[in-house]
Write a structure and sequence with these properties.
The chain is an all-alpha fold. It contains four helices and no strands. It is rod-shaped.
């Protein structure tokens, strides 16, 4: 038992008291260190590169988002400026169109008034011609009637020259 007690004293005895096998612990520790070394040499650098790449992508995305927001704000202000310019231009076009329409309307009124004046003058001239023609016709008809009446009253036919003088005198008296 003394041998057991000697072995059980010290670090080896502590592991045994805890129910641990020192040889398994050393082998497991060596295996762990080999795995950590392999992971550190081959796996972790790839993971770190992938994580760094992902971090760079995220930073680039954030930067692009910031730039896009700035561009959107600039585009919004440019759009407002363009809209303001378009409103001013539309107002100018509308004013010019109103002026042109008013000018065309005034011109059309002037033309229609001139045409109406021309038509009225032509109608007056035609009326004057018609009245003159009617007076001539009336004079001729009146002369015939007077000649016929005179022939009936006198009972004889006068010559054309004598009839014309008589008729002219009778028309001038009245």
């Amino acid at each position: 038992m003394t041998i057991l007690l000697a072995e059980s004293s010290g670090i080896g005895g502590l592991f045994t008291a805890l129910g641990l096998n020192v040889q398994s612990l050393v082998l497991n520790t060596l295996a762990f260190l080999v795995i950590v070394a392999v992971l550190g040499k081959y796996v972790y650098p790839s993971l770190i590169k992938a994580l760094d790449a992902k971090k760079d992508e995220l930073e680039a995305a954030v930067r692009l988002e910031h730039e896009a927001k700035e561009a959107l704000e600039k585009a919004g202000s440019k759009a407002e400026a363009v809209i303001a310019e378009a409103r001013v231009a539309a107002g100018e076009i509308l004013a010019a169109t109103k002026e042109a329409a008013t000018a065309q309307l005034d011109e059309a009124r002037a033309k229609s008034e001139a045409q109406a004046t021309r038509t009225i003058n032509e109608a007056r001239e035609q009326l004057a011609r018609d009245v003159s023609d009617a007076r001539k016709t009336l004079r001729t008809d009146t002369a015939r009637l007077v000649a016929a009446t005179t022939e009936t009253i006198l009972g004889e036919k006068l010559d054309g020259k004598h009839d014309a003088e008589l008729i002219d005198r009778s028309l001038e008296i009245k």
